[in-house]
Amino acid sequence: MSLTLIPRLIATEIGATPAQVTSAVELLDGGATVPFIARYRKEVTGGLDDTQLRKLEERLGYLRELEARRGAIVASITEQGKMTEALAKAIAGAGTKAELEDIYLPYKPKRRTKAMIAREAGLQGLYDAIVADRSADPLALAGGFLSEGFPDAKAALEGARDILAEGLSEDAALLGRLRDHMRKVGKLSAKVVAGKEAAGAKFSDYFAHSEEFSRVPSHRALAMFRGRNEEVLVLDLEIDAEAPRGESPAERACGAAVGAGGNGPGDKWLREAAAWAWRVKLKTSLTLDLMAELREAAEAEAIRVFARNLKDLLLAAPAGGKATMGLDPGIRTGVKVAVVDATGKLVATDTVYPFQPRMDLKGAQVAIARLIGQHGVKLIAIGNGTASRETEKLVADLLALLPSGAEKPVKVVVSEAGASVYSASELAAREFPELDVSLRGAVSIARRLQDPLAELVKIEPKAIGVGQYQHDVDQHRLAKSLDAVVEDAVNGVGVDLNTASAPLLARVSGVGPGLAEAIVAHRDQNGPFAARKDLLKVARLGPKAFEQAAGFLRITGGKEPLDASSVHPEAYDVARKIVAACGRDIRSLMGDGAALKKLNPAAFVEERFGLPTVMDILAELEKPGRDPRPSFKTATFTDGVEEITDLRPGMVLEGTVTNVAAFGAFVDIGVHQDGLVHVSQLSDTFVKDPHAVVKAGDVVKVRVVEVDVNRKRIGLTMKSDGGASARDQAKERGGAPAKPVRGPMQSGPQGGGNAFADALKGKFGR
Known about the structure:
Number of domains: 6
Shape: globular
Distance between the termini: 81 Å
Helix content: 40-55%
CATH superfamily of the largest domain: YqgF/RNase H-like domain
Radius of gyration: 33 Å
Number of helices: 31
Largest sheet: 6 strands, mixed
CATH architecture of the largest domain: 2-Layer Sandwich
C-alpha cells in the first residue's frame, strides 16, 4: 500500500469519499483540531462529523506507522540482497502490521537458534536428503551426518526437525491460515490455580470455564486476563481437542506445507516432525499472538465504552448558577462542609461531627442551617462515599423541620469519584493554598453539581470512575481516547471566556495549558474581556490559535452580541447580512425563530462560506448560546434502604445509571454498591446495545431481582414483568469489580431557600 492509497482506505471505513478524507488530513496536518474542523470547516470536508474525524485521525496514525514500517522492512531485505519481485509484491499487499511482520520474520536478524546450530553442523543436507528421497529410511540417512554436536542418528534427526520447524514458523502463508483456523475453531479455557479458590473467589465464574474464542466479549476477556495476572487463573486456547494425535486440521496443514503427502518412510518422518512443530512451537507462539490480539480488541472495546460513559457524564445536566453547599461525608473525621456562590466562588467552610464518636447531631444541623441561611443556599450536594446515606438523612431531617410551605434547598447525592484526586492535586493547592485537603473535596462536590463539565475537567479522566478495567488497559491509548472525549465535550458546550478556569480553557480547541494560564493571567491583570478579538492581546496567542479557539469561547453581555454565540468571528459579516435582510437590530432578532425561518439560506452563500455555515449561523441566531446538555433531573432514593442488607427481591427503587457496559448497566440505588441491570433485563424487547436504552446519568426505575451480600452483587431488572433471576446474569458480569463505579448524580426531595435560618430558630432555640 502506498501513502496515496490511505485516503481511499480510510474513506471506505468511515463512510466518506477520498476527497473528503484528503481535505481533512490536510487540515489536521496544518494544526487544526477535530472540534474546529467538525464545526467550522464543513465546506472543506463535506460535512465530516467529529466521530468520523476521530476515527480518521486514529486510522491515519496507524496507517502512517504501517507505511513507515513497510519502508524499513523493504530497506532491510534489500540491504541483505534477498529482495525478489514476489517478496516485494507480498510486502506491498500486507494490510496490517501483523501480516507485515509475518513476511519479514525469515529475514529479521535473530539470535542464534537451534536450527542455525543444526545448519552449521551440516544437517540442512540431512533434511534435504529426506525431502529428496521419501523411500529412504531417515534413520539410515542420518548416519552419514553425525558430528561432535550431533553424535548419533537420533540427535541428527532432531537437528533436522529443528530446521523444519523454523521453516514452518517463518512461512507467512501457513501462519495466516493457522491463525484463521484457530480464530474460527479455538476455545478459550480458564481453570483455577490449585489452592487459589478462596483468594480468587471473585473469579469463581471462570474456575472451569470454556467458550468459543471468536465469541468472547471484551468484559469477559479482560476479567479472565485479570484473573491470570493475579495468578488465580490459567488460560489456554484449545484447538481441535477431539482430533486424534497427528490428524488435526492444524497438524495436517503443517504436513502439507512440507509436502508430506506420500506413504514412504520420509513422508512419515516429515508428517511427524511437522506435527511436533505444531504442538511444541507454532501452537504456542500463535496462541500468544491470538491472546495478545484478543486483549488488544478487548482493551479497545473497554476504552470505547469508558469514553462513551465519560462523554455522558461530562455532558450531564448542570444544576446551574445557584449558591450550593457541598458535603463530603465522613464518620470519625467529620462531615466537611463548603459553600460556593452562584459563580462557584468559595464563601464558607466548616466541619461538623454528627456521627460517632462525637454524635453532635444537633450541633451539625445548626451549623449547616446557619450557613444555608447566611449564603442563600439553593442546592445541597452530598458526596456518595462512606456515610453518604447517613448524611443524606441528617439533611432530610433538617429540611423536615421547616414549616410547611417554607422554601427548601434541593438535596442531591453527587458522585465524589475523583474528588480526592483533585483535592490533593497541584491545581487544587494553587486554587486553595490555605484550605485543608479534605475541605477542597467538599468544594469539588459542590461545584460538580453546578456544572459537571467545568469541574470534572480538573480531574484526570480515568479517575472519574465510569469505566471498567481502566487500570488493565493500555494507559497511553486510554488517555488519548479520554482526552479526545473531554475536548469534544468542552467545545461542544462552549466556554465562558470571562469565568472559565484555566483547566477548562486548556481543553478549548487550539488553547492548551500554557495559553490557558496566559488567558487567565491577562484576565486577572486587565479585567474581563470585552470582545473575542481582545484575545489577540494575550501573550503568545497568535492568529492561528485565535482561529481555532474563538468560536468556542463566549462573552456574555459584551459590546458584540455575536460574541455570545457559536458564530465564528470569521463569519460575522455573513451573520450581519442575515440580520440586515431582516431589517432588525441584531439583539432583537436573536431568538426570533419565526423571522429567521422566512429567509432563504441560499441567498447568503458566499465563495468561502457555503450552505452548511449559513445554516449553522441561522440555527445559532434562532437559539443563541444554546446548551446541548439536558435539563437538570434528579433521582430519589428510598427511605430505609441504605445498605445492601436492606434490599429484598421485588423492591421497586429509583436510581441513577452510573456506568453502561456491553453486558448491561450499573445503577446506583443508594446502598453504596451499584446494582447491575443485565442487557437481557433492560427492556421487554431485545436489546443489542445497552447504550441505546440508557446512558450514564439517566434516572430509572428498577426492581430488585437478586441480592448476593457476600459477593456484593445486586441483580436488577427494568422489565415490566419483573425480569428473570440474576443468577443467569452472573457469568456475564464475570470479574466486574465489586467496588461501585459511580456516575453523575442522584437526589432526594426538591426545594430551595433563603429564609432557612429564621425558620429554624424556633426548632433549635438559637
